[in-house]
Automatic annotation (TrEMBL):
Keywords: Cytoplasm, Methyltransferase, rRNA processing, S-adenosyl-L-methionine, Transferase
E.C. code: 2.1.1.198
Positions in coiled-coil regions: none
Protein name, entry field: Ribosomal RNA small subunit methyltransferase I
Domain RsmI HTH: 238-278
CC per GO annotation: cytoplasm
Species this protein is from: Candidatus Berkiella aquae
HAMAP family recorded: 16SrRNA_methyltr_I
Function noted in UniProt: Catalyzes the 2'-O-methylation of the ribose of cytidine 1402 (C1402) in 16S rRNA.
Predominant location: cytoplasm
Reaction(s) the record says it catalyses: cytidine(1402) in 16S rRNA + S-adenosyl-L-methionine = 2'-O-methylcytidine(1402) in 16S rRNA + S-adenosyl-L-homocysteine + H(+)
This protein's encoding gene: rsmI
Cited InterPro entries: 4pyrrol_Mease, 4pyrrol_Methylase_sf, 4pyrrole_Mease_sub1, 4pyrrole_Mease_sub2, rRNA_ssu_MeTfrase_I, RsmI_HTH, SAM_MeTrfase_RsmI_CS
C-alpha cells in the first residue's frame, strides 16, 4: 500500500519576515508543492527565502474543486503545504475544505504555527484574554448591527478583523449597539513599522479615528471587552445568608454550602465564604 503524503498548514509573516520560523522555512523547502492564496504574492516571499518549491493557486473562488486535486496528490505520496498571503491559514482565509478533505481521507495534517494578527493583537491589548470569541470579518452590509447587538452581553472579549475603509463605520456601529463606554482596543499594522495598539473606550477610539490620529491604512483588528460584571445587590446577599442560616442550623457547613449552591446557583466559593462568616458570628 502506497504511503500517503502529509499536509502542512504553515503560518507566514504578517509584516515582519523574521517572524517566519526555521521549521516553517524547512517545510516549505522540502514539500513537493505549496498551495497559496495569491501565487504572485507568495512567490516574492519564497524568492526572498531562496525557496524554489512550485506554487499552486488556492483561493476562495477555486478551493472546493482545487481541494479534490490536491487530495489526490497527497494520497499519491506527495507532501504539500498550505499557506495564506499572511498569517495562519484558515483564520479568515481559505483552507477549510482542503484540511477537512485531508482528514476524511486519512491524511496527516501538521500545523506549523506562527503569526496570527488576532492572537498577537489580543496578547498586547490589555483586555481579558482567558476566553475570547473570534468573529473575523462582519458582513459588509446586512446583518452587521444585528450581530453586534447579539454580542453586546457576550461574556468574553470579541475580536474582529476589518478593512481600512470600513473601520470608521464599524466603530460607529459598535458605539451604537454595544455602548460608547465599553472598553476596547484597536490594533493596526501588527509587526510592521507603523504598528499601533490603542486601548480605551469605544468612544475615545472612535474620536481618535475621526480626528485622523489613527490613519485608516493597513490591516485592522478591533477587540471589544466583555461587559463589566454587575455587583450583587444587598438583597441577593441577604437571601443567600438567610438560606445558609436555615441550612446550617440542620446540616454540617460543608453539606449546607453544597445544598445552597444547588438552590441558588451562586458560586460555591462565594457561598463558602459567607458560611464561614456566619459560623464565626455564632
Amino acid at each position: 500500500m502506497q504511503k500517503m503524503g502529509k499536509l502542512y498548514v504553515v503560518a507566514t509573516p504578517i509584516g515582519n519576515l523574521t517572524d517566519l520560523s526555521q521549521r516553517a522555512q524547512d517545510v516549505l523547502s522540502q514539500v513537493t508543492w505549496i498551495a497559496a492564496e495569491d501565487t504572485r504574492h507568495s512567490l516574492g516571499l519564497l524568492q526572498h527565502l531562496g525557496i524554489a518549491t512550485p506554487l499552486v493557486s488556492y483561493h476562495e473562488h477555486n478551493e472546493r474543486e482545487r481541494s479534490l486535486a490536491l487530495i489526490e496528490k497527497l494520497m499519491s505520496g506527495e507532501d504539500g503545504a498550505l499557506i495564506s498571503d499572511a498569517g495562519t491559514p484558515l483564520i479568515s482565509d481559505p483552507g477549510y475544505h482542503l484540511v477537512q478533505k485531508a482528514h476524511e481521507a486519512g491524511i496527516q495534517v501538521v500545523p506549523i504555527p506562527g503569526a496570527c494578527a488576532a492572537i498577537a493583537a489580543l496578547s498586547a491589548s490589555g483586555l481579558a484574554s482567558a476566553k475570547f470569541l473570534f468573529e473575523g470579518f462582519l458582513p459588509a452590509k446586512s446583518g452587521r448591527r444585528k450581530r453586534l447587538a447579539q454580542l453586546k452581553d457576550f461574556p468574553a472579549t470579541v475580536i474582529f478583523y476589518e478593512a481600512p475603509h470600513r473601520v470608521l463605520e464599524l466603530l460607529e456601529e459598535c458605539c451604537d449597539e454595544i455602548g460608547r463606554e465599553r472598553s476596547a482596543c484597536l490594533a493596526k499594522e501588527i509587526t510592521k513599522k507603523f504598528e499601533t495598539i490603542y486601548s480605551s473606550s469605544l468612544e475615545n477610539i472612535l474620536a481618535r479615528v475621526r480626528q485622523g490620529e489613527i490613519p485608516l491604512k493597513g490591516e485592522f483588528v478591533l477587540m471589544i471587552a466583555p461587559p463589566a460584571e454587575k455587583p450583587e445587590s444587598l438583597s441577593e446577599v441577604a437571601e443567600q445568608i438567610r438560606i445558609l442560616q436555615i441550612l446550617m442550623a440542620e446540616l454540617p457547613m460543608k453539606q449546607a454550602v453544597q445544598l445552597a449552591v444547588k438552590l441558588t446557583g451562586h458560586p460555591k466559593n462565594a457561598l463558602y465564604e459567607l458560611a464561614l462568616e456566619i459560623q464565626g458570628k455564632k
